[in-house]
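Whiteboard transcription, Tuesday session. T.W. wrote the C-alpha cells on the left side:
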C-alpha cells in the first residue's frame, strides 16, 4: 500500500508542476499580445530628450523583456511598468523631427524617465 502511494504522489506533483509552467507561459504570451495591441495607442518616448543626442533615445532590449523599473524620489518612488513597444525591423529612415515637442533633461532629474532614454523590445 505504501509503495503505491509514493509513485502516485510523485506523478501528481510532476503533473501539477507542468500545468503551472504551461499556465505561466500562457500568461506571458497574453501579456506580450496585450503589449502589441496597446503599443499603437502610446508613444514610444516620453516628454524628455536625451541631452547627448538632442532627441529621445530608444534603448533596444531583448524581446523577452516585459517589464522595466523606473526610479524616482519620494515614498513609493519605484515603479515597474510594462514595455509596450517593439522595434520595427522595416524602419524606412528618419522622418520629420520636431525638437520643440520635448523638454531638456532637468539639472537634477527626479525620475529615470527624465533622462530621455526609453526601452523598446528588439525584433529578434
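and on the right, the sequence the group agreed on:
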Amino acid at each position: 500500500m505504501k509503495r503505491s502511494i509514493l509513485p502516485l504522489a510523485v506523478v501528481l506533483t510532476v503533473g501539477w508542476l507542468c500545468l503551472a509552467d504551461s499556465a505561466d507561459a500562457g500568461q506571458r504570451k497574453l501579456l506580450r499580445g496585450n503589449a502589441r495591441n496597446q503599443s499603437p495607442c502610446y508613444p514610444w518616448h516620453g516628454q524628455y530628450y536625451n541631452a547627448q543626442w538632442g532627441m529621445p533615445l530608444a534603448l533596444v532590449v531583448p524581446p523577452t523583456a516585459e517589464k522595466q523599473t523606473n526610479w524616482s524620489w519620494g515614498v513609493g518612488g519605484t515603479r515597474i511598468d510594462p514595455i509596450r513597444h517593439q522595434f520595427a525591423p522595416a524602419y524606412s529612415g528618419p522622418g520629420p523631427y520636431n525638437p520643440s515637442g520635448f523638454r531638456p533633461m532637468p539639472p537634477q532629474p527626479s525620475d529615470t524617465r527624465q533622462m530621455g532614454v526609453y526601452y523598446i523590445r528588439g525584433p529578434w
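Someone added at the bottom: The CA atoms of residues 20 and 26 lie 10 Å apart.
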